[in-house]
Design a protein that fits this description.
The complex is a heterodimer of chains A (308) and B (405). By secondary structure, chain A is mostly helical. Chain A is built from 13 helices and 2 strands. With 405 residues, chain B is an alpha/beta fold. Chain B has 2 domains: 175 residues, 3-Layer(aba) Sandwich (D-Maltodextrin-Binding Protein, domain 2), CATH 3.40.190; 193 residues, Periplasmic binding protein-like II (D-Maltodextrin-Binding Protein, domain 2). The chains are: A mainly alpha (308), B alpha/beta (405).
Chain lengths: 308, 405
């Protein structure tokens, strides 16, 4: 036993108290945030899951009958659920990559030096900074078949022969809204990627050009690996946000014409809020959450492997 | 001496308590006005002056989510004490046990005799009790561009067949650029447009929402609407999504030559178009006549803290004079005989069109399913039928299924 062995001394009370404090303090400091999160996120989540197992129609508040998985069985047999699911997949599958590509191009442009770069950087953020409802109303007017600039522009270019009711035609409505959302969301990618680009040391590019690497190879082997971490996070966040966002759809078409722009969150919202069928609406929301979680887990696993 | 002081003290305390109790009476009232410069403040000031012990907290709730918000607030235990309500919501509100019966109060009320005939009967619940106190009303009629009719030598359509011919004639390219500039009829394919469809469908022999929706006559009605859009092209291409703002805006801008709405938009139309706009009852279709009676009442909720105060407030709104002030804001018609006799807010042709429409004006069925019909089933089915995703027969079948036929 060496002279410095602490066990040879009687451990006084104070360090015990200090270590106890060290153990308790983080929890004490975290608890307000945790409690608030529990109250406003987890409690409603559990409540939703519980409601989804009941027949609960809001205008018959006294009837709250447990029906097990009946709502989920009904969901699987519901034509509108499958239509909405298909639209949700198209919605995520096209909007997020489109935003990513546009954001990437914008970020690469903004990373070049040109005289009014600070101004351009400030302007690019505008679509992202505008409230969704404003964007939805603005684009609804752009698409308007009588007064909209979109029709006017395309007619003048000779690309269409007569005004198109972009939002009233089931073949174009979803695409039109996806274009709107792409416009709204690309600045987020642009800003995130720009931050990633600026973290890549200039010396890498200098070394690469001395070695004779082409611009493409520099992009492929320096730029892309340099921003991959940012991309993974940004895509993950955007997939979740885009999947859940229905405010723009709700304002622009309300899901119409027919079911042409129904997505799952919108369908769940309409079922619960308009039809007041909270049991079925909750079942839709729970189903969607599970599906989204599966997508997120697969995505994280695959990108995790790729990043390693 | 001591006793006197004590007595005096307790008496004044009692008086204080009493006044405090009555001064605490607050009535939370929900309403929906499209009109930005609404006179609710003036009405409240007049009421509070007459009833210093009652405070009114009035809240203008946006129309688009009015009933969603109302139902949710009732279930959440935060319902207002009184609110503006329509008949289609009554079955649901009754099912929720949210309404306070008003029959006794109405019987004892001075203003009852001044109510327009029939209104209290029309707004009665299924059980014969009155839960609603009417506050304004309208009937839907046809707005048309008198100048365009004159220009083309057309007369106002009185039947569906005439309507179709007129609408086709009015749909034209006025400047020769190959684009349609005017469409015959501004159809409301979005939420709230069921009244347009109903005028062409529900007047037909043996057809109502709760019975006969699977009949040949009902099919003719829906098919008529679908054909107007798909075959004849007399609605603007945006019709499947169009709501109130779009149909009124298009009519004012001269993009459409006819549309269906009520007197509430008459003054705005006259402001934009002057004498070029006129009105007539909707056409008769398939041998019958149907237009929507636009009702609006007030109700006291069963959870109201001070029901007497809430009743005082809503009956104040339906009393002669006050009712005029109320309707000046909404642009609809007063429910009292006194105010109706003196009514001068609208040009006469629109009042006449309303009066001529009253004999065949109807309410939607007093059923719980009506809310779903109005909010989701009709708009979705109509939009799908207009865009060709389903047939007119399939649309009618969806409605029949909803009402359990």
């Amino acid at each position: 036993m060496s002279a410095t062995d602490p066990s040879q001394y009687d451990v006084p009370e104070r360090p015990v108290r200090r270590s106890l404090a060290r153990q308790v303090l983080p929890y004490a400091m975290l608890s307000p945030a945790v409690l608030v999160t529990l109250a406003i996120v987890f409690l409603p989540m559990i409540q939703t899951a519980w409601m989804s197992l009941h027949e609960y129609v809001l205008f018959r508040p006294k009837e709250f009958d447990f029906i097990g998985l009946e709502n989920f069985r009904a969901v699987l047999g519901d034509e509108v659920f499958w239509i909405s699911l298909r639209h949700t997949l198209i919605w995520i599958g096209i909007t997020v990559p489109a935003q990513l590509l546009l954001g990437l191009v914008t970020a690469l442009l903004l990373n070049q030096s040109f005289p009014w770069r600070p101004l351009a950087r400030a302007l690019i953020i505008i679509p992202w900074a505008l409230p969704s409802v404003v964007i939805a109303l603005m684009w609804a007017w752009i698409y308007d078949s009588n007064y909209g600039v979109m029709n006017d522009f395309l007619l003048r270019l000779g690309l269409i022969q007569r005004s198109m009711p972009w939002l009233a035609d089931p073949d174009t409505a979803l695409g039109a809204i996806m274009l709107t959302l792409t416009w709204q969301g690309f600045p987020f990618f642009a800003v995130m990627i720009l931050a990633g680009l600026q973290a890549i040391p200039k010396s890498y590019y200098e070394a690469a050009s001395i070695d004779g690497a082409s611009t493409w190879r520099q992009f492929r082997h320096i730029t892309l690996p340099g921003i991959s971490g940012v991309l993974v996070t940004a895509v993950l966040l955007r997939v979740i946000w885009v999947a859940n966002s229905f405010d723009v759809i709700f304002v622009m078409t309300g899901g119409g014409p027919g079911y042409a722009t129904y997505t799952l969150p919108l369908y769940a919202f309409i079922k619960a809020r308009t039809n007041l069928d909270f049991g079925y609406g909750s079942a839709l929301a729970v189903t969607f959450t599970i599906l989204l979680m599966i997508i997120v887990v697969i995505y994280l696993r695959r990108t995790g492997k790729a990043l390693r | 001496m001591k006793t006197t002081v004590r007595l005096g003290l307790s008496a004044s305390l009692l008086a204080l308590a009493a006044s405090a109790a009555s001064a605490e009476s607050t009535v939370r009232f929900w309403y929906h006005f499209d009109n930005a410069d609404n006179p609710m403040d003036a009405l409240i000031a007049a009421f509070e002056e007459a009833n210093p012990d009652i405070t009114i907290e009035a809240e203008n709730v946006p129309w688009n989510s009015y009933y969603d918000t109302l139902y949710t607030s009732i279930v959440g235990g935060n319902a207002p004490d009184a609110a503006m309500v329509k008949m289609f919501a009554q079955p649901r509100l009754l099912e929720m046990g949210a309404l306070e019966p008003l029959g006794e109060r109405i019987d004892a009320w001075d203003g009852k005799a001044d109510m327009l005939d029939n209104l209290l009967d029309l707004t009665r619940g299924d059980d014969g009790e009155n839960y609603y106190l009417p506050v304004q009303y309208v009937a839907l009629y046809l707005y048309y561009r008198a100048d365009m009719f004159d220009e083309l030598g057309l007369s106002v359509p009185t039947t569906c067949d005439e309507f179709r011919d007129v609408a086709k004639a009015l749909t034209r390219d006025t400047n020769g650029d190959g684009q349609m500039d005017v469409y015959g009829f501004g159809f409301r394919g979005g939420k709230g447009g069921h009244d347009h469809w109903a005028s062409f469908t529900l007047g037909r022999d043996g057809v109502s929402l709760v019975d006969g929706m699977d009949s040949e006559a009902a099919l003719e009605g829906t098919q008529f609407v679908v054909d107007l859009f798909r075959e004849d092209g007399v609605f603007p291409p945006s019709a499947p999504n169009d709501g109130f703002q779009e149909i009124i805006g298009a009519f004012k801008a001269g993009t459409t030559a006819m549309t269906i709405h009520h007197i509430g938009s008459a003054n705005g139309m006259v402001e934009a178009l002057g004498d070029k706009v006129s009105a007539a009852p909707v056409p008769e279709c398939g041998g019958g006549h149907w237009t929507a009676f636009g009702d609006e009442s007030t109700a006291v909720f069963s959870t109201a803290e001070d029901k007497d105060a809430a009743w005082k407030w809503i009956s104040f709104l339906s009393t002669a004079g006050n009712n005029t002030m109320f309707n000046e804001a909404t642009g609809q018609l007063p429910v009292t005989k006194t105010d109706s006799a003196k009514w001068s807010l609208h040009p006469e042709r629109f009042v006449t069109a309303t009066m001529e429409s009253l004999p065949f004006a109807n309410l939607l069925p007093n059923r719980s399913e009506t809310s779903d019909f109005v909010n989701t089933v009709w708009p979705v089915a109509m939009q799908r039928a207009l865009t060709g995703e389903i047939t007119a027969a399939e649309m009618n079948a969806e409605i029949a299924e909803l009402f359990g036929q």
